[in-house]
Amino acid sequence: MPATSARRRTFAVLAALPILTLAACGYGSKSTTDNSKEKVAAGSSKVEGLDSVKIGYFGNLTHGTALVARQQGLFQKELGATKADYQIFNAGPSEIEALNSGSLDIGWIGPSPAINGYTKSKGTNLKIIGGSASGGVKLVVNPKKIKSLKDVKGKKIATPQLGNTQDVAFLNWIADQGWKVDANTGKGDVSVVRTDNKITPDAYKSGAIDGAWVPEPTASKLVAEGGKVLLDEASLWPDKKFVITNIVVRQAFLKEHPKAVEAVLKASVEANKWINANSDQAKAVANKQLEADSGKALKANVLDPAWKSIQFTDDPLAATLNTEAAHAVKAGLLDKPNLKGIYDLTILNKVLKAEGGASVSDAGLGSS
Questions:
Q1: Which of 4, 129, 215, 260 would suit a FRET pair with 209, their CA atoms being 20 to 30 Å apart?
Q2: CA angle (286 as vertex; 302, 270 as ends), nearest 5
Q3: In Å, how far from its chain's centre is CA 89?
Q4: Please, what is the angle between helix 258-277 and helix 64-71, to 10°?
Q5: Is 350 exposed, middle or buried (0-12, 13-18, 19+ CB in 10 A)?
Q6: Closest-CA residue to 207 (of 144, 291, 153)
Q7: What's residue 191's pLDDT?
Q8: One digit per residue, pLDDT tens: the chain, 368 residues?
Q9: Distance separating alpha carbons of residues 297 and 294, to the nearest angstrom
Q10: Rounded distance between C-alpha atoms, residue 348 and residue 176, angstroms
Q11: So what's the pLDDT on residue 93?
Q12: Cα–Cα distance for residue pair 48/256, rounded to 1 Å
């Protein structure tokens, strides 16, 4: 098999890896118990007769919308007597597999796995129904070894996973420098070391890597260990905005239970509105949910700079998703995809209109 075809196949199959395999590599998911604010209001009824809606997100600050909405009880409030059930994921492929299997209904997820899941299924398994966050990705390096962008050449830089959103962005940046790297092996003018975000700080401390292109809060954890932010990815994008987190739904669930989807989107819009009006308080709330999910809260020297670099928005920034797909094609990780139909923003725009907000665009990639 030609190397390019092998890389493309590698990128595509990331969306289809079994949950158990991923869990063995530290990429699995877990269900968590209810929070005190997640109480069913007296006299409330089930949405469309559903016993539960299964909601997924990552334990990352870039999924702050879901963290805040859960901690504040917003999902449960909008779902009434329908129980909000949760799964916490560590990477996109396992969340896509959960959607495919029907064990997840709605999830917060990055753009690359959303693209993978959509193209792998030939447009049958998911829809992006809303935005959640922009930014929060940085290149952090050891300042003793790397003093300028040109010094990145010849160094060992971590990304979270082959073909994930940050991996694609870093490979694209490398290509823009005129440097060569084999996307599949990570070998070339820069050594791209795929490393789970959970162990990246330890890898940095041990000297196994010289830096990392990673999302928050991993980036700020590296800074706390003496790293320096060499580049904020937002600086590479028009208006300094690019999608880092979307909301996706199983297509069958969207078709069968639009009122339940609307309830979750209402909670998301309410959460983003509150976050943007109460940033410091929202930061603490998100951290409290992270502690509930993982058993450990972030320290202020990590939480504060990490939160500051993320913008929370209902807009899915669809044009940037198309660009990110083009970056994956450029890296040889993806055949040129047909993303027409990946978005269905009908319910989101209905919710935004009811809230007196402006509608958001699907950049021509909608269902109609």
A1: 4
A2: 140
A3: 10
A4: 100
A5: middle
A6: 144
A7: 98
A8: 444 444 444 444 343 333 323 332 333 455 444 444 677 766 789 999 999 999 999 988 999 999 999 999 999 999 999 999 999 998 788 899 999 999 999 999 999 999 999 999 999 999 999 999 999 999 999 999 999 999 999 999 999 989 889 999 999 999 999 999 999 999 999 999 999 999 999 999 999 999 999 999 999 999 999 999 999 999 999 999 999 999 999 999 999 999 999 999 999 999 999 999 999 999 999 999 999 999 999 999 999 999 999 999 999 999 999 999 999 999 988 889 999 999 999 999 999 999 999 999 999 999 75
A9: 8
A10: 36
A11: 84
A12: 9
- 198-237 in b/e form (b: 16+ CB < 10 A) is eebbebbeeeebbbbbbbbbbbbbbbeeebbbbbbbbeeb
- What does residue 205 show for φ and ψ, rounded to 5 degrees? -60, -35
Give the C-alpha separation, 213 to 186, whole Å: 14
* Of 279, 266, 222, nearest in space to 129 by CA: 266
Which residues sit opposite 159 in a β-bridge?
194
**What would the two tokens of residue 158 be?**
């971590």
Q: How far apart are CA 217 and CA 54, in angstroms?
A: 25
Spatial separation of the C-alpha atoms in residues 160 and 166, rounded to whole Å: 7
Rounded Cα–Cα distance for residues 270 and 62 (Å): 17
Look at residue 45 in the predicted model and tell me its pLDDT. 92
Amino acid letter at 124? T
- Distance separating alpha carbons of residues 163 and 328, to the nearest angstrom: 8
Tokens of 187: 């070998």
Rg (C-alpha) for the chain, rounded Å, is 20
Distance CA 238, CA 252 (A): 35
Residue 39: the pLDDT is 72
197 contacts: CB under 8 Å, gap ≥ 6 = 60, 90, 160, 214, 215, 218
Tokens, residue 75 = 């999902």
- Looking only at the bridges linking them, the beta strands covering 83-89 and 29-31 are antiparallel
Q: Which residues lie across from 214 on neighbouring strands?
A: 138
Amino acid of residue 196: D
